[in-house]
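User: Hey, quick favor. My workstation is busy. Could you predict this chain's structure for me?
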Amino acid sequence: MQLDFHYYATYCAAFIAGYSHRESLDIAYSAQFVDCCTKSFLREVKGPLQAATTQSQTELLGVRTDVIGLQDITRIWASFHFLPGNLYSKVKSFSRAYKNKYRLICQPNGDLLIRTVELAKGKDLQAVGVSMHVLADTWAHRNFAGTPSMVINNTDGNFFEILPDDTLRKVKFGHNPGASDDIETGSYTNTVYNIGETTIMNLGHGRAGHLPDYSFVRYKYLPAWDDYRECLKDNPSEYYNAFAQMIYAMKYLRGETASFEKETYDEISVAPYKDRIKEIIGKRQLDSCSDWKAFGEELSGESIPDFDEDHYVKEYKNADTDHVDKTFLGRFIIAALSQKSMVTNQIYNSGNRLAGFSIDYEKRGFAGIRDYMKLVDNTAGRENG
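Assistant: No problem, here it is.
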C-alpha cells in the first residue's frame, strides 16, 4: 500500500473507530512512517538502527546478501510489510530451506496478526499506527514473502489485469525505476528477472511491481510458490476488508471490544460510508490521496495536513537523554522495536532461522543487540509505573 491508504485512509478508519482528530492524525502519521524509517534516516537523527522499519532503494542496492544481510532484510520486511500468515504451514516434501521461505508468505488473518494487534493494546498511539500498517499490508501483499526468494516471489509472463468490463489485458512490465506506471496502456514497472535465489530483485512483490499497492487493480497471475497455478487478486474487495478490519481492530485497541478475532470486520460502522469508500478504492488512479483526504475532512470537519516525513525530527534531535523516548519519534521507535522483536521471536521459535536468532528477554533477560535496551527499559518502566 501507499501514502493514500496508510496515511489518509488510516486517518478515516481511526476517526470512524472513535479516535479524536488529533489522535487519528498521530495514528495515521505513525502508520505511514513505517514506510519512511530507514537506517539512513535513523543515522541522521542518531536513533537506534535496529528500529528500521523499511529499506530505501539505495540501501537495498548496497545491502549484503550473505546470511547476516538476508536475516536483517527478513526481520524488516516480514515484521512490517509481509507478515507471515502461518509459520507452521504444512508443506509438501521439499527441502527445509524451501519450507522456511514458504512459511513466510504473507496472508491476512494469521496468528501473527492477532499478536500484532494485541501487542499494541494499552500502548502509545504510535504502536496503534504501526499495527495498522502491518494489518493493511497483509491484504495488499498477500501471496508474497518478505525475504528474497525467486522460488517464492517470482512471477512469469502470464500476468493479466482484469479490466472493469471483465476482459483480460496482459500486463506489460518494464524495468526502468524512473518510469511512471501507465493505467491506460497497462504498462507497469517491476524488478528485473534474475535467477538468483537471494537477489533483492526477488524480494516481496518486486516481480509484480506496484500492482499490489493499487486499490483499484484486479489481476490474475501464476505465483511460483503455488506451482504456477492461476491466482486471482481482487484488490478492491481486499482493500475494503482491510479498511473494515482496521476499524474493528482500533475499536478493540480503544477498549470497545474485549478481544480481537480473525476474519472479523466492522461492517456496521462502515455501512453509512460504504458507497463512498468503494468509489475511492475502485477509482482507476495511481494516487487516491486527494479523495481519501476529502473524505477524512468531511468525517471530522477538520483539516488533514499533508504528510511530512521530517515533522518530528527537530523534537527528537533536541530532546535530552531522559526525554528522547517520550518524543513522537521516540515512541514510534519503541513500537517498531517491539513489533520487530515479537515477529522475529515467533519466526525463531517456529524453528525458522531466516530472520536470525532471537532471545525472549521477558523470560531470559536481556542478551543481544544494544539497541534493544530501549525496549527492555521501556517495558520495565511500564511494569513499575
